[in-house]
Amino acid sequence: MNSTPTLSGEKSFVRWLDKSFSALETLINRATTERFNPLYHLGTLAIFLLLALTATGVYLTFLYRPGPDTAYASVEWISSHWFGSLMRSIHRYASDAFLVVSILHALKSLASGRFWGSRTLAWVTGWVLVVLTWFTGVLGFWLVWDRRAQWITEAFIALMKGPVAVTFLTTNIVTSTFSTFIIAEFLHVFIPLAFAILIFVHVLRLARARLLPPRWMIAFSTAGLILVALLLPFRSAPIADLDSVIPALTIDIWYLGFLIPFEKWGSTAALLGGGLILALLILLPWLARGRHSGPAYVTGSRCTGCSICSVECPYKAIEMLTRDEPGPDGSKRFARVYPDLCTGCGICVGTCATMGIELKQLPTEQVYKAGLLARVQRAAAGGHSPAVVISCQRQVSAGSLSRYLTKDGADRSNEVISCVLPCTGMADALWTAELFAAGARDIAFVSCPYDDCANREGPHWLYTRFRRHKGLLTPALHWIETAPGHAHSLVRLLDHLKSSGEEKQTVESLPEVKRRELAWPRIPAALAAFALLMILSLPVDLPASPRIAGRGDVRFVIEHHGVAMTSQAFSGVKLPENAIIDSTKIKGSQRYPVLMRVTVDGRPVLASTYEPTGLRKEGMINGFDQITLPAGLHVLEVSLNDSGGEWRSLFSQTLEISPEKFYTLVYQTETDRFELR
User: Are 220 and 530 in contact (CB under 8 A)?
Assistant: First the structure.
């Protein structure tokens, strides 16, 4: 019976997600091999795309001119030159790729169980980065001030109501919105600067964090972005016109896709739904917390203070401290494990020659000596010469060993004996010599791909140990790097070994890490990787329309100073005799709410109340409402009550409603009338 640890990967949804990713990765690996699969470098690819966005964004910022009267013209001027069009298109497609790659990176982390425990900080900051990226991208689309920007504006008018409506729907839009353009440009430029801090926090608990992808991936990504930008130069929609209805147009699904549920379900419901999904994602480390075989603990009497476990820990969970008194072997230092940072991977166990560090739930005595080694010895005593398979828990959860293990983790026969570890990096290279001496015919390590280990560095450190003991590399020792769940590679190897007898091939040593980063794929793998990176850069634009056919909208905008409640304004104040005071000019006194009533063709269709702003209800009164009417002639009457007294009719007119036009009635304080803009 195997002592199989229970990990987050055992959860059914996570296991299904991991299998789905693995199926895709296996398909890609057939063309690229495991070494050159772009899906194994999503985190570093996102950082490279951020650098590309920064470089192109700096160029565009210098040429952009904010303001509703200049923004669109400046963007069109940039696009009129081949280099400006190239920079703008790369900026747009890199932003799409950045968001897609970041989400894929998060999903892969979820699939491999890297989202809880010590990885919680990385998970939370990752989603903060995604949200900030999305918000920054929406600002970028808005700054163009085309029809897409108009739809964004109308969506936020519907959400924020009065203040935003007053800014964009007053008679002098150039003056009222210029500061808004300045603020939006500032946020679009400077929010990404905060990404550097967030990325630092994101990788804070990772030892030897890699920030850039391999050189081949940088080259292919750059070439892919340039090629997509040349083939599909990005073009603006027509200039925004807040007095006319937005026609059908295409929108970017990643950044502007929210406009569709905003239009269908309403801004408040869509925002609450999106906020709930985001909250669940951020809280996932607490809602779906998994279990592992750790934390590791140090046996003080066996620890020699060599610090190798501290160096090899992928998550900075082990620190070397100075002893108060020298140890039994004269060592002056000892290792200390921080349980909250430990992921239970066991890499530290595999590197300790004195067994001075162990996993709390999976001691070496249980998993190896009384487990794997004892089973091999029993099989040899029964006349069998078994093949030994040492695999990680992720591979077992995905079904890589299903042909050789029962559902409860027992070996199906004495021909193949398996050992399941939290990570293959927990295996000590010296185990292989003992297993061969005990009667094992072959030993096969089944690990995640080198660049896609669920514990980051398991295959790397195990390979490093074999490089330290090159005498252990024999023809009977084999290594399989494969996507979890791809059992074909192991089955083919074991079937071949069973039929080939003594004809075996020596295991191929893994190149040094530096050489891996400098390696370039062969032409078929290069073409496949390049094609995949191009696909990630391609835009996903959907045709959409915010309008209902055959109907038009009438909008009402109110910016009112309010009428002071005189009795409260003078409460406790002694005034001179015969003093004439205009209560509307008194500052600091509570205002009456403004009540508006709208009738269409003699039928009431709208009754709204707009409260004064301020803690004491003494501020401005901003209001916005909108009604949708069938096309044709309609008699529209608007009445107002702003003093708690009688109603006043401030607009009465017959309007011919057209589906292609907005009708905006703006309250004018000077004339005390609603005027059609």
Answer: yes
- Asked if 137 and 282 sit in the same domain, the reply is yes
The whole-model pTM stands at 0.88
The answer to whether residues 559 and 246 touch, using CB atoms and an 8 Å cutoff, is no
Give pLDDT tens digits for 661-675: 889 999 988 889 999
Domain residues for the domain of 425 are 377-510
Measured CA distances, 199 to 37, 125, 314, 544 (Å): 23, 8, 17, 35
CA atoms within 13 A on the CB side of 345: 32
Map residue 562 onto helix, strand or coil. Answer: coil
Roughly how many angstroms between the first and final C-alpha of the chain, as a whole number?
80
pLDDT tens digits, residue range 94-144? 999 999 999 999 999 998 888 998 899 999 999 999 999 999 999 999 999
pLDDT at residue 148 in the model: 94
Contact of 346 with 362, CB cutoff 8 Å:
yes
Residue 48: HSE in the Cβ half-sphere, 13 Å Cα cutoff = 23
Claim to verify: residue 300 and residue 281 sit in the same structural domain: no
The total of structural domains in the chain comes to: 4
Kindly list the distances between the CA atom of residue 313 and the CA atoms of 120, 203, 207, 361, 485, in Å, as whole numbers in the listed order: 17, 14, 7, 18, 26
- State both tokens at 30: 């057939």
**Between 542 and 584, the higher pLDDT residue:** 542
